[in-house]
Amino acid sequence: MSKKSKKKKSTSKTNNTSSLFDINIIVILIISFIVFIPSISSDYVNWDDDVNIYENPYLNDFSIDNIKNIFTSTVMGGYNPLSIFSFSLEKAFGGGAKTTHVINILLHLITVFFVYRILLLMKLNPLFAALGALLFGIHPMRVESVAWATERKDVLLGAFYFSSIYYYIQYILSKQNTKKAIKKYFYISMGLFVLALFSKIQAVALPLSLLAFDYYFNRKLDKNLIIEKIPLFALSLAIGLLGVFLLKDTGTIVDENHFGLMERIVIGSYTFWVYIIKFIFPYEMSPLYPYPTSLEALHYLSLIPSIGLVYLIYHLYKNNNKISLFSIVFFIFNVIFVLQILAAGQGYKADRFTYIAYFGLFFGVSYLLQQFSQKSKQQNLIYGGIGLYLLLMAFLTWKQSGIWKNGETLWNHTLQLYERNGTVYRNLGNYYRDNQMNDKALEIFNAGLQLLPEDATLNNSVGKLYFDKGQVDNAFTFFNQALTIEPNNIEYLNNRGVAYAVKNQYDLALQDYNKGIQINPNNLKSFENRGKLFLSIGEYQKALEDFNLVLNAYDNGEIYLNRSEVFYRLGDKNSAINDANKASELGITIPPNYIQLLNN
User: Fold this and answer.
1) What angle do CA 206, 210, 212 make, to 5 degrees?
2) Are 39 and 107 in contact (CB under 8 A)?
3) Which one of 43, 114, 297, 544 counts the least CB within 10 Å of its CB?
4) To which H or E segment does residue 453 belong?
């Protein structure tokens, strides 16, 4: 009986069956929540929040059709339907920016909870498991993922990613402690992996992460481990290839600097070490890190430590240094796909790319500090240093969270770091324009154009501002300049087409719309504008075809009202009434004279 008791006690210790919510995790979650309090009062920002949330047509109503659209469509070339679905749920229940930010924080706290539980299962003692989890919770490089509404996909990914890992470790431990593995843990892990994939494409790295945990927990690295994970690797490959295809299809994969493959490898190497340095001290945090116009010596010098890292990994493996090797390899597995070796987007690095990857480094540092503190006679000094560092990290996170308050605070902060970037001037000016501060917007746009006269986005923004002010002739000057620089930009073509239509130059407007459709037949804005043009000139059948195409893709109240008028002009009064009702249901105000016309 004594032997059985000892065996049972040993098994309990191995599985870390302590209470799920001990005092450590409660304190960690409270502190992690406190440092992000500034983000709760933040508004949406004009940095993808418009396309993903408040202007996303799939969020107009919580219907079966729109839910289907969410899971069969992309946003800005990205396929993260679960994130968009969560926004749709929020909007259906009347939530706004505050709700979005609160939920982002809660998802982050769920992630932190699973990180703590994983660190305990990895045999860190509760104090240093708490340290690793707290670093994960309050590190300033978390801010972009938590405080930026659009990055719901990061915290949603984190919640599913680390819960999947947690149950996978339970599967490993059950396999080690009993003759038969408890398969339910593996199936739960796989199900959570699928949810992670629907949250963000970065989840494709999870099967590699699980192999790292196999190594850490002394599972024999053989073909059986690979076979066991074939479904996971297959899903990762499918989603990964889909992601690359969608990014190419929408033009998101673009290298405006025309770097060659070797230069892109250099950029990846440099970015890797920047993330390592920012892990220790996060400096110059920005929502946008523009590509350099050319590579400098420091970029190429980063290859030296990268080559050294390859040797270090080999050395650690040969010497069976599991702790250090796991820490490094987990980081590499989860950052390698976002090192911009394949160019995507306007920036070559991003704070949010480290959200998952830093776990490996947090674990490694926590383990080393645990070992050092146990051997050192200066424990109080060690704990004091750790405490001061945590206070610094908490302060920086609190401060950085406030930067995301609105578009003005966000882009003024970025302007201090990158004063020669057109995107920054454009977004700051657009914030002022959208808030009816046109004179301030024009001041910002002109300041940008003085530095960057050949920036197409700034020329287009000034054109839109003049158009909104009713100065259409001035608008043409800037739309034409933007199209001289980027002749195939569909947004600029649409903007100039609308300006032509206002001046009753319908043939020229039609040319711009048709060119936009020729460049990208999936760009619905060109069809919307062309349909409105056909309606205004009495080409009702052509207008109907364009409006049908748009409404087959998504519900749009304004287009329903336009199509209603088309049906009325074609003599189909019942269809006109039906479309007017749909427009009203989607929040469009129907003019009283039109209602009276339909009822006569």
Assistant:
1) 115
2) no
3) 297
4) none
Q: How confident is the model at residue 11 (pLDDT cuts 50, 70, 90)?
A: very low
Instruction: Give the three-state DSSP class for 404.
Output: coil
CATH 3.20.20.140 for domain 408-599: no
DSSP designation for 217: T
Q: What is the identity of the amino acid at 250?
A: T
DSSP string, 330-391: HHHHHHGGGSSSS--SSBS--GGGGTTTHHHHHHHHHHHHHHHHHH-S-HHHHHHHHHHHHH
The amino acid at residue 234 is A
Dist CA 518 CA 474 (whole Å) = 27
Q: How many CA atoms lie within 13 A of 408 on its CB side?
A: 7
CA 541 to chain centroid: 41
> Which token pair is 330?
């987990």
Q: Report residue 303 as tokens.
A: 């290859």
Who's near 375: CB < 8 A, 6+ residues apart?
none
DSSP 91-148: HHTT--HHHHHHHHHHHHHHHHHHHHHHHHHTT--HHHHHHHHHHHHH-GGGHHHHHS
Report CA 398 to chain centroid distance, whole Å. 21
Residue 75 bridge partners (DSSP): 78
Q: With contact defined as beta carbons under 8 Å apart, do 87 and 53 qualify?
A: yes
DSSP assignment of 550-596: HHHHS--HHHHHHHHHHHHHTT-HHHHHHHHHHHHHTTPPPPHHHHH
Comparing CA positions, the residue from 465, 471, 535 lying closest to residue 503 is 471
So what's the pLDDT on residue 9? 41
The CA distance from 470 to 319, in Å, is 73
Share of the chain above pLDDT 90, in %: 69
pTM of the shown model: 0.86
Q: Which tokens hold the place of 597?
A: 């016309």
Beta-bridge mates of residue 78: 75
